[in-house]
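Regression test attached.
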Amino acid sequence: MQRAAKCALRPDLSLVFCPSSVRNCRAVNRVNGSVLCRRYSVLPPPRDEEEKAMLDSMLRVDHAGEYGANRIYAGQMAVLGRTQTGPLIQHMWDQEKIHLEKFNEILGEHRVRPTLLLPLWNIAGFALGACTALLGKEGAMACTVAVEESISEHYNSQIRTLMETDPERYTALLQIIKEFRDDEIEHHDTGLEHDAESVPGYFLLKTAIQVGCKAAIFISQRI
Amino acid sequence: MRSPLWLDMAALVRALRAGRALRGLGSVAVQGTVSPQCRNARRGFHCATLLRLADDSKSGTSVPPPSFHEVPTAGESSSSSEPSEDGQPNTSYQDQSGEHGEDYETEEQLQVRILTSALEFVPEHGWTVEAIAAGAETLGLSSASTGMFNNGAGDLVLHFVAQCNAQLADTLAEQHNLVQLGQAESKEMAEFLRDAVEMRLRMLIPYIDTWPQAMSILLLPHNIPDSLKHLSTMVDDIWYYAGDRSTDMNWYTRRAALTGIYNTTELVMVQDSSPDFEDTWVFLDNRIKDVVNMANTAKQVQATGEAVVQGLMGAAITLKNLTGMNQRR
């Protein structure tokens, strides 16, 4: 009853979940009908401090990750936006925007503190996206491959943790993370399809970016 | 020879932890098919180790602690009718907070009771161990039970702060519910903040004469982590119910601003001698107006900055067009 009243008081939520620029996109229609447009609470009420701390740090790092991914795509678009790869990067960026929107909502509702280093991820993400895009389309794709691989590995480990703890308790959260992980893997595969591996120094670049991502994940879980 | 009360309590808490660990092992072992005799024997073993302080154990104990009341040992008969899983919470005669029966309580609950009754003696004795001792005596316990409190007066002050914050959170939650149900008007953010901080500070009025002592106790190095935690949860609660759902740096700036407002207003309040602390509320009002003004100014600066950047981008694109650099790659 409380939730119905809250929904009635808010403006049309579909505008929040599915921004108009995205609504026409084919790939997004799959997501429209999914868990993103439901209005129940994603997390169960925490039963003790430990669980709250664990969920807090998981959601904090996920939010930081999506925020960083957003900024990386923004950087790539700033350089390659008016080239042939522009629409492709824009499409992937739009999906990341949806993910970020969802995490913003979860954080606000469940009173999770966002990471203090958001301004740092803002600048670092944009710089990473712009610099790799300056290496050309292959560089941007290589960056996408590296980042998406890190993120999907990270989501997988979170899924494993939640499944080991109590899969029934976290069904809604697991569903969201699984969906997002599938999207990230799709981006990874798209990057590979578009000649990511043909950038000079691919392995060096990929390793460097993945080390950076791991460090970012480690820090964001704590700070 | 009876050992002192606090030794018993320490032993009970240790046994409780050991019992919990054993119960965890026992429930894993019991997953498979276990014969009823084995099950009861294991339960009996748990009974001996788990003293009555366990949350969801339902059996009686062998060693009654001296100052606590007995729980009727109806454990065995009811537990044999339980299904196979060991340690399953039985809600029929336990309430959810973990008490076993009406006469039973944990160490933490006893401490809470003592500290709550000690608050009455604070105007007389100040925030000291004497107040705690006097509180314990009203409950019929010896004044030596102050030995339970390692932090002495710090425990009393922290308990009071936690109690006030809990009361504030409850009131704010009730108001929030009323607004959700449409039975009350939602307030403007500035007005809401003002009312919430005023409500919280008014809880200090009965103790305002001794409050400087309490503040200095909260500033002791070993109390700072706890007092900061209480302060931050209170500020987070107020912002949450004020409607803040931000997930960027605003989260931090807003809470920092409100912490500053609260602390300065508290300081003004302890040396305020006006009737009903009017000067304090006027000060609070002005501080909140300042913060709101600053936020509005920041928004204006950002909007102006964005407009300037747009203008510069437009100029750059015009230049590129003029020089013929703006071509599709």
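Expected vs. actual: identical. Residues 133 and 140 of chain A are 4 Å apart (CA to CA).
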